[in-house]
Design brief:
The chain folds into 2 domains: 83 residues, 434 Repressor (Amino-terminal Domain) (Orthogonal Bundle); 194 residues, 2-Layer Sandwich (Endonuclease, Chain A), CATH 3.30.870.10. It has 13 helices and 7 strands. A 7-stranded mixed sheet has the order 1-7-6-5-2-3-4. A hairpin with a 3-residue loop joins strand 5 and strand 6. Helix 1 packs antiparallel against helix 5, helix 2 packs across helix 3 and helix 8 packs across helix 9.
Length: 285
């Protein structure tokens, strides 16, 4: 968790404590506020929120504003939450309504970007996924996160975004580790079709597709997947959250990581050969 994020969470906690201590009708203890707010609340939860050790939900903020007799401050509290959650977006919160909402949230960034720089170590990147492959990825992630399944809506949103591959003036610098070609996150027949599609993408003039072979000498370990939107935003995926990072120094770091990995990547015919080898390995099963 970044220092800036934690500082913002602590600042929100200070504001929540202030509201409790100046509640309409008189100061409340943590236990009194928890009792007033009802099921799901305890003085421990109140303490964690006030001390920046737990991130408030939208529902928490609404309850807190109402419980302290200050419903008019809800919008202020919500703005504070949105401010620091724009940088760390937990999967639990994002997936509360399913994967379609996550796809819709990132689409504006795709639409405004001229150059998209992608690194994926384990999966075929979403920009070049087939519907069947994407479907299996969404289902497995929903199962892991125990989130609602809206698989078909999410697949449609992802595939619609791929229209950008055919727009003049766009550039997609896509790079992946060879492991992405061989990860059986779907049935072999689906992966075979995905690899056939991927081979065809190499011919697009908007795409630079690189693959880092298993046998390549690496100057840095593959690490997490990340997506760079021009040079103004990088989105990094982790198991608990997406990190939306927009500070110049961090963006420069991810660009260096990408360029360092690129030194080990192959393109064109060599990339085609790696894809073909992965397809042949599937046929021999």
């Amino acid at each position: 968790m970044s220092t800036d994020y934690q500082k913002a969470r602590e600042d929100l906690g200070i504001r929540l404590r202030e509201l409790r201590l100046t509640a309409t009708g008189g100061r409340l203890t943590g236990a009194q506020l928890a009792e007033r707010l009802g099921p799901g609340w305890s003085k421990v939860k109140v303490s964690k929120l006030e001390n920046g050790r737990q991130t408030a939900t939208v529902e928490d903020l609404r309850a807190w504003a109402d419980g302290t007799g200050r419903p008019e401050v809800y919008e202020e509290l919500l703005a504070r939450l949105r401010g620091f959650e724009s940088h760390i977006r937990s999967w639990r919160r994002q997936l509360a309504a399913g994967h379609r909402a996550v796809q819709d949230a990132v689409t504006p960034e795709h639409d405004r970007s001229k150059v998209l720089t992608i690194w994926e170590p384990c999966l075929i990147p979403g920009m070049v996924q087939t519907p069947d492959y994407a479907r299996h990825v969404f289902v497995r992630h929903a199962d892991l996160m125990r989130s609602p399944r809206d698989t078909e809506d999410a697949v449609r949103a992802r595939i619609q975004r791929q229209e950008g591959l055919y727009r003049q003036g766009r550039k997609y610098r896509i790079m992946m580790w060879e492991g992405a070609l061989r990860s059986l996150v779907c049935p072999p027949s689906v992966l075979a079709a995905q690899l056939h599609h991927l081979a065809g993408v190499i011919g697009l003039d908007t795409v630079e597709l690189g693959i880092v072979p298993f046998t390549a000498s690496l100057k840095i370990y593959p690490g997490n997947s990340f997506w760079l939107y021009d040079e103004r935003l990088v989105i990094v995926e982790d198991w608990h959250a997406e990190l939306w990072i927009d500070d110049t120094d961090s963006i420069a770091t991810y660009l260096r990581v990408w360029k360092t990995l690129q030194e080990s990547a192959v393109y064109g015919t060599d990339a085609q050969n790696l894809i073909n080898h992965a397809r042949q390995a599937l046929n021999s099963r």
